[in-house]
Design a protein that fits this description.
single chain, mainly alpha, Serine Threonine Protein Phosphatase 5, Tetratricopeptide repeat, 3-stranded antiparallel β-sheet, 68% helix, elongated
Amino acid sequence: MPTPFLSSEEYDERAHQLYNEGQYEEALRVLREGLALYPNAVELHIGVGYAQLAREEFGWARRSFEDALVLEPEHEDGLAGLGESLLKLGQDEAALRCFHRTLELGYGDDIDLMLQIGRALFREGSIRERSDFFDGAKGFFETAVQQAPESAEAVSCVGYTHHRLGDDDAAIASLRRSLQLDNEHSEARIYLANILYDRGEYEGALYHLEQTTPDDHWDELGIWRLIELKRTLYKVTEQDPELKPWDDRLSELASDLDDVDELLMELDPRHATDETTREAQIARGQLELFGTLLSGLADQKEETSSAHQIVARDGTKFAGSWDEIVLRMRDAVGDPTHTMQDFMRRAARRGFRETGVQIPTSDAESFIKGSADAGLLRIVR
């Protein structure tokens, strides 16, 4: 039963707390209880819209934001929420009109709003691989920086869009500026480390990764790279106690994915759960470049006496050098956008879950022979 002693603001505050805790269904219950008493409370309609967005009920969210804007046509949160709903429904032009309307109304000085809109465009650009959305996101992020040049979050967001638009020099400059403003901004530091790694600047990448903690990481890529670089540059062994916290964090992240999540990620990298994961799935490093060069020589080498051959459990045959075999396995059963090292690590993790056998990933030969020992494939020669 509704509680008449609560004001509409109190209902909104209760729902907001539940929303922040991820209890979207309970937040909706509180908001609807409040609307039964205060049907013209704009903030409650907007709260319903954002809870429905979080539940991916995009059509219902659109309706809730439209109800709010009928009551207050120039409400900035209503316009931003409606824009995000329309973006999810594929109505891009209408969505962009809502977003730009916030600027026309003078809300460019609302830093949180500018970041919210920029992130919505960035996420959708990642899902649909739309560079124009990244351009749009950069515009809103830059507006936030103009209003708050000392905001490390805003500056780092500009850096993310520079990277997605292919300007790594500008991305690195923005991310370093962000870290000057806030040395504890771990998201920016991890992003910067991954860019440096992809450019082959391994010492710089390791420097930044070593300044993070395992709990700072919400995807596996940065952790895998830190472990690899420590083993390569510092000659740390796989069993070194220094790596245990990182291995534990990998296990935690792996346990967060159910079988359906993993299947979707294997089939389509766009099902990643956040921007950082998406970065993990499209990252390319110098090792992949080297692998591509090897792959280009595959046809010339496959029939030579030095070529190896393996047979997977489904009967598929792969031949060539050890590196070529791994690359062909990656292209056949993995994601061609992953580096060879990333593919081996993912496969080794799945193999360990299935067999309990630790499969080395330091090089292609060890990986293949370890997979054979685990019974996952057979080496013919």
